[in-house]
Amino acid sequence: MKNIKVLGSGCRNCQTTYQLIQDAARARGVEIELEKIEDMAAILGFGVMSTPGVVIDGKVVHAGGVPDRKKVESWL
């Protein structure tokens, strides 16, 4: 099971990214552990300067803007 973290302040783009990942995983039948990280110190700890950021199994795979669905599906 993949551990996926969405990093961001809780803005609309962050919420959209979280929902997009959740929907894509559900549609593909992939079990994931999905978390929201809104603490700025934790976000900066990952080296992410623009949100939303996405971290999969400890590795930053995306930062800044909402990823497109094909990109999200490639992570799964």
Question: How would you explain this protein's 3D organization?
Answer:
The structure is a single chain. With 76 residues, this protein is α+β, with helices and mostly antiparallel strands. It has one domain: Glutaredoxin (3-Layer(aba) Sandwich), CATH 3.40.30.10. The protein contains three helices and four strands; from the N terminus they run βαβαββα. Strands 2-1-3-4 form a four-stranded mixed beta sheet. Strand 3 and strand 4 form a beta hairpin. The protein is globular. The termini are close together. The mean pLDDT is 96.
Short description:
This protein has 76 residues and is α+β, with helices and mostly antiparallel strands. 39% of the residues lie in helices and 28% in strands. It has one domain: Glutaredoxin (3-Layer(aba) Sandwich).
User: Mind telling me the CATH class?
Assistant: Alpha Beta
- Total strands: the figure is 4
Kindly report the average pLDDT value: 96
Overall radius of gyration: 11 Å
Shape: globular
| Largest β-sheet summary | 4 strands, mixed
Count the helices. How many?
3
Secondary-structure element series: EHEHEEH
At CATH level 2, the architecture is: 3-Layer(aba) Sandwich
Low-confidence stretches: none
- At the fourth level of CATH, the homologous superfamily is Glutaredoxin
> What is the terminal-to-terminal distance?
10 Å
Give the strand order, joined by hyphens, for the main sheet.
Answer: 2-1-3-4
Strand content: 25-35%
Q: Helix/strand/pairing class, anyone?
A: alpha+beta
**Helix fraction?**
25-40%
**Count of all domains:** 1
